[in-house]
From TrEMBL:
The keyword Transmembrane applies. It comes from Galactobacter caseinivorans. It comes from the Bacteria. Keywords: Membrane, Transmembrane, Transmembrane helix. The chain crosses the membrane at residues 12-32, 38-58, 70-89, 174-192, 238-267, 279-296, 308-326, 332-355, 362-384, 396-417. The lineage of its organism: Bacteria, Bacillati, Actinomycetota, Actinomycetes, Micrococcales. This is MFS transporter. The keyword RNA-binding does not apply.
Length: 427
């Protein structure tokens, strides 16, 4: 992969996506330090996530139309201004911070304009490696790598917020996110490989582009059965019903992340270890990242639907173990177990979407799924915060458990929908 994009591309693309993964938890951490309750902070985090949910697909559509460079550079300027506004609006006040219009607007705007580097790097790999003369085997490896980095950013980004806040203060993570935005997002935008994601015009692209990059690769290589199936799926256009189910899966994963982040914070406070919630939550990323990396070595006969359902079945009972935790290290150990089945589901959802999406819609679909995680995280933050205010961390764990059940149900729904679609194509 390094021969395709150069070694510097990997750290740059990884660091360019941290401003997004740090936003929601960064806002939560900053506001909770001066607010009178968890509900205010949870509402601000939820508004930031709603902003991402609205802005990410718009950013993806803009990149499909005008290219990634223009979209990312514009986002850099706007997001930098949005973070500064949030820092000013959320500054500590005498009598405690309250949820006013300025604070809500700042959080919402910051979410709308945050740069979407993660989904856009996926688009670059697909266009580069699935086109004429492409390398489908390397594409599979690249997609697995990007899924792992995406998954780890959604876990380690919030964890970094907790670590930085504990060491330097609650406002510092947002300043770090601002610095990362100013340095690495333009670097990523101006990288030579951004030219690969130039606008794709559906009317001018012709049948090959309509069928997607994998279909084009068939002219110059001998694609696998999986590649042929993916090309056929792309030729039929975007299956919005299946993409909708994948989006619901991402919302469920995000809600698990968000509620666990809030629960870990509340649990740390209740057990006499304030400020260590981020460190506890960070353990989730260790096993989830490792498990995501392992997916590329799983047997090809394990379909995406089978992987999703199996991992969700394993996840649900593990979530129940969180109620048994009495001290921080107990909670951290259980999170290690919880992380293992989550990573593979993330890989599965992104891969399934990429295999079914035409070239001219890749930016939109990838950013839509990424937005689903962020919106789900905000929902988990908000719901977990409200329940924790009323009954503590044990009651808030029901939000996490419900999210796990939802992930399982949507996995079953995706399996049924996939079988029906395959049956119709067979006929």
């Amino acid at each position: 992969m390094a021969a395709v994009v150069g070694p510097a591309y990997f750290p740059v693309s990884a660091l360019a996506r941290l401003p997004l993964s740090m936003l929601v938890i960064g806002a939560l951490t900053y506001i909770v330090s001066s607010a009178a309750d968890f509900t205010t902070a949870g509402a601000v985090a939820a508004l930031a996530g709603i902003g991402v949910a609205v802005g990410a697909p718009l950013s993806g559509a803009a990149s499909d139309r005008w290219g990634q460079r223009v979209t990312l550079l514009t986002s850099t300027v706007l997001y930098s201004a949005g973070l500064l506004w949030l820092l000013v609006a959320g500054a500590p006040r005498e009598g405690g911070l309250t949820l006013d219009f300025q604070l809500m607007a700042a959080a919402l705007v910051a979410g709308v304009v945050v740069p979407q580097a993660g989904p856009m790097t996926r688009v670059r790999w697909i266009i580069r490696l699935a086109g004429p003369g492409g390398d489908l085997k390397t594409l599979d490896a690249a997609q697995g790598y990007e899924s792992t980095v995406d998954e780890m950013s959604f876990v380690l980004g919030p964890a970094a917020v907790g670590i930085i806040a504990a060491a330097f203060g609650p406002a510092v993570p947002l300043w770090v996110a601002l610095a990362l935005t100013i340095v690495f997002v333009p670097w990523f935008a101006l990288h030579s490989r951004s030219a690969l994601a130039a606008p794709v015009r559906r009317a001018k692209a012709g049948p090959a582009a309509e069928a997607g990059p994998a279909a084009e690769a068939g002219a110059d290589s001998a694609p696998s059965d999986h590649a042929k199936q993916a090309a056929a799926a792309r030729a039929a256009g975007v299956p919005w019903a299946l993409i909708g189910v994948l989006l619901l899966g991402m919302l469920s994963i995000g809600s698990i992340f968000g509620s666990l982040a809030t629960v870990a914070t509340v649990f740390a406070d209740e057990t006499g270890h304030p400020g260590s919630g981020g460190l506890i939550y960070a353990t989730l990323g260790l096993t989830s990242g490792a498990a995501a990396l392992s997916v590329s070595r799983w047997p090809q006969r394990w379909s995406p639907a089978r992987r999703w359902v199996a991992c969700a079945i394993v996840l649900v009972p593990m979530l129940c173990l969180l109620w048994l935790a009495a001290v921080p290290w107990h909670f951290a150990v259980v999170l290690l177990l919880v992380g293992a089945p989550i990573g593979p589901v993330l890989v599965t959802i992104f891969s399934a979407a990429g295999a079914r999406t035409p070239s001219h819609r890749l930016g939109f679909v990838m950013t839509l799924l990424s937005a689903g995680i962020t919106l789900g995280t905000s929902i988990g933050n908000w719901a977990g915060g409200m329940v924790a205010d009323a009954g503590g961390h044990r009651d808030a764990l029901w939000v996490t458990f419900a999210s796990g059940i939802a992930l399982l149900l949507f996995g079953i729904l995706y399996a049924i929908a996939s079988m029906k679609k395959a049956s119709r194509q067979g006929n």
